[in-house]
Amino acid sequence: MKTTSLIVASVLAAGMASADAPAPTDVVFEDGAVAASLTGTPGNAAEGRKIMNKGAGNCIACHAVSDLAELAFHGEIGPGLDGVGDRWSEPELRGIVANAKNMFPDTVMPSFYKTEGFIRIGNGFTGKAAEGAVDPLLNAQQIEDVVAYLLTLKE
Amino acid sequence: MTKKAISLGILALAVGAGSGAYAGPDDDSLVINDELEMVTETAAPAHMEGIDTIYSGWRFRTDETQSLQLDDFDNPAMLTVDQAIDAYSEVDGSENESCASCHGDVESFAGLSAAMPKVKDGNLVTLEDEINNCRSTRMGAEEWKWSGQDMQGMVALIGLQSRGMPVDVAIDGDAAPFWEKGKEIYYTRYGQLELSCASCHEENYGNMIRADHLSQGQINGFPTYRLKQARLISRHNRFRGCIRDTRAHTFAEGSDEFRALELYVLSRSNGLSVETPAVRQ
Question: Which of A80, B104, B183, B242 sits CB 3.0–4.6 Å from A64 for a disulfide?
Fold first, then answer.
C-alpha cells in the first residue's frame, strides 16, 4: 500500500516537472520529425550542452563534437555532430533526439523519450529489474535543451 | 614499445576531434613465450552472417596491455593459475580425494576447453558445471562459486592445457536447440538502451564507444585477467556486465540463458586459438 502511493507520488512529480508535456506515447512523429515543442518553453542550449556529456544523455559516448573538445574520449558509433544544425531542421532534430528509430529504423541510437516496449528493462545500471513506472532517459525539457544545443552546431 | 604506447594515447585523444584513425583491429601478431603462435584472425565460421573475418580481442588492445600476454612471466593471470595447480593435487572434502587422484596429470585435459560447453545427458554443461559436479558428488567437497578465484583459477588451468588449439565447439545435433537459444539472446536488444550484443560487437567492432575500443566480444581467451578488476573474470561475469550496461535486468551467472549464450558466443570463435588465460584492460 505504502509503496503504491510512493510510486504514484513520483509519477505525479515527474509529470509536473514538464508541465503539460505530452507523454512519450502521445508524441506525434511525421516522417521521423516532431513539429511542436514538447514543452512550449524554449530550449536552453547551455543546459543541452551539459546533457551531451552526462548521465542518461551521454551522447558523446557515440558521437564526436568539436565544440566539446575539452571532454576526453568521443565515440565513433554514430556520425560526428559538427554542422548538424545545418543538416537537419528543428523538428527533425527533435524527432531524432526523442526517438531516433522513427527517422533511422533499427538504429543503435537509444530512444530518449520512450517509456514502453522494452525487453527486460533494468533499474538504471544496477542489473536488477526496474520497479514501478519507467522515466524516459531524458525528460521533455531536457529534449528541448539538447535540440537547442544541436541547432548551434553550424559549420 | 613505450614510445608507441604514448603516441597511441595521443591518438585516442585525437579521435575525440573526430578523426576516426583508431578504427579496426591492429596488425600485431601474438606469439607467446617466443614459441607458441596464436591464430588471432581467421575466416568466420560458416554460420556467421554479419561478419567475414573473426579477430581475437587481443588485436583491439593497446600495445601495453597486449605485451602482458606475450610472456607467461608477465601474465598476471598466472598467479591464480599457480594456486589452482596447488589446489589440483590437494585433498578436499569427505571422500579424501583430490582432482589429481582421479584425473592424474592436468595435461590429460588437453583439448577439452576448445570444445566446451557441450551437451551431456540432455543438459548443456560448462567447465564450471563439471568441476562443481566432481567436487560435490565425487569429492564430498563444497561447490565453488561460479566467478570465485578458486573456480576461475581451475577453469584457467584446464583451459591452459588447450592453449594454441583452435576453438571447435559443436553446434549441431543435441547442441542445436541450445545454440539457437543463445543466438536469439545475442541478437535481442535488451534494456532501456535497447542494445544487443550484435549492436556493439558485430555492427561496431573497431569503433570507439566513449573510451573503449570495441572488439568482437570473443571468448576464446576466458577466463581473462582484467587489469581494471585485478582478477580473473568468468565468461558469465563479462556477459552480465555487458547486459547491465544497457540498463537491463541481466541474467544470473550460471543461468541456463548464459550457458546457451556461452555456447553461441564460443561458436563465433571457432577457428581462433584458445588463448586462456588472456589479459584485457
Answer: A80
